[in-house]
Amino acid sequence: MTSRWKDVAMAAGLASGDGTVRPTIFAEMSALAAATGSANLGQGFPDEDGPAWIREAAVDAIRAGENQYPPGRGIQRLREAIAGHQSRHYGIDLDPDTEVLVTAGATEALTAAILALAGPGDEVVTLEPFYDSHAAAIAMAGATHVTVPLVPSGGGFAVDRAVLSAAVTPHTKLILVNSPHNPTGTVLTREELSDIAATAVAADAIVITDEVYEHLVFDGASHIPIATLPGMRERTLTISSAGKTFSLTGWKVGWVAGPAHLIEAVLAVKQFLTYSGGAPFQPAIASALTDGDADIAELRETLDARRELLLASLTRAGFTSVRPQGTYFVCADATPFLTDAVPDGAAFARWLPAHAGVACVPLSAFCRAGSETADALSNWVRFTFVKDDATLATAIERLETRLSRG
Ligand SMILES: *Cc1c(COP(=O)(O)O)cnc(C)c1O
Fold first, then answer.
1. What is the distance in A from the centroid of ligand 1 to the CA of 105?
2. In this predicted model, what pLDDT tens digit does every residue of 363-398 receive, in sequence order?
């Protein structure tokens, strides 16, 4: 008898020898940060809540009585706002009644889509490193996880075209894309996306794309939804959420958009995961998606400035880092600080809070145990810059004054 939860724990790297589930590395590092009074640049959630007017809109909705189950697909006004957002930003036209589904964050959309469309015997291809819930959902579905490394190359992280072609086979059911990419901060180029699209068409695979950082791009990079590439609209489910875009991660309002028959499949699963949720948040996010472009631009500017501060500080402290074009994160190579006692990124992340008063997470936490990518990135760690000015200043001062090379 096997229990699916064990596969899930294993896929997420959380299986411990005694049959229990370990806390995630994010929880472990946050606990360590709290215990040591460290500036927590580990877990990536904002210190500052999103715009007051959006929060007030949710309060108004509670007062106005929007407190019972919303429709399973989400309220009409939010589905229309999501369709409007996709059309305004990317020229993607969607029927809000059949091609948009509101979910409990991007996480539920991802899990419901993977459970709906993949099962035992199917292969699901992702980039590696990957967001932890992607691997867990693939394991829940009982499907096989195949990865394509995203490895340091010429100052950034890149997809190797040959490895991608070899990974996508007739057994590939789904290709899971994530751009802007967590944890590396990579924004996939049109060429990389075209290569992925070509392999998807050749294998007749469906693409699921996690675009939760779609608006958090820097240096003039542009986010290209893979659904906009030729031939991709009919085989792509595009997933995003309000959490990162509006600094409201606890509201868990997400969505998935794509062709009606695929949305129907996701709905069939989603309605028995949560059915629906977030009644008063849905109208507030509808307004945010319609009238919040200035707030998004302001967040992007604030984060851009924090990104520069952190990058400069990491360089002064002695790290080699990759300049991220998107997301909340900077990845850095901790090799100069490693010693016999602190031999890799995971050990460094556990050592740093007590010795320098800063927390980060190792990139190996986003890789499969023992994989080639885990090996290539074994000395790398991820820092987030989505922290208030005081926390970031504290972290920067400590990294520069308390760290010395091993
Ligand atoms: C934060 C995050 C999510 C989760 O989004 P929710 O809307 O909070 O469920 C999904 N994918 C990536 C890559 C993330 O960083």
1. 7
2. 999 999 899 999 999 999 999 999 999 999 999 999
131 CA: nearest ligand 1 atom:
13
Judged against a pLDDT cut of 60, whether residue 1 lies above it is answered with no
| pTM higher than the cut 0.90 | yes
Q: What's the CA-to-centroid distance between 227 and ligand 1, angstroms?
A: 19
DSSP class per residue in 18-57: TSPBPPPHHHHHHHHHHHHT-EE-SS---SS---HHHHHH
Q: What is the pLDDT of residues 221-259, one digit of tens each?
A: 999 999 999 999 999 999 999 999 999 999 999 999 999
| Listed residue (161, 196, 162) closest to 178, CA to CA | 196
* Ligand 1 atom nearest to CA at 328: 15
For residue 192, give Cα distances in angstroms to 162, 229, 255.
12, 11, 25
| 255 Cβ closer than 6 Å to some ligand 1 atom | no
**Domains of the chain in sequence order:** 4-49+295-402 (3.90.1150.10), 54-291 (3.40.640.10)
Which residue's structure tokens are 């290539």? 376
d(CA 192, CA 389): 35
Ligand 1 pocket residue status of 276, Cβ below 6 Å: no
Q: Which region, left, alpha or beta, applies to residue 15 given φ > 0 means left and ψ of -120 to 50 means alpha?
A: beta
The pairing of strands 172-178 and 206-210 is: parallel
Greatest CA separation for the chain: 62
List strand residue ranges (DSSP E) for 211-328, in order: 236-241, 253-257, 320-322
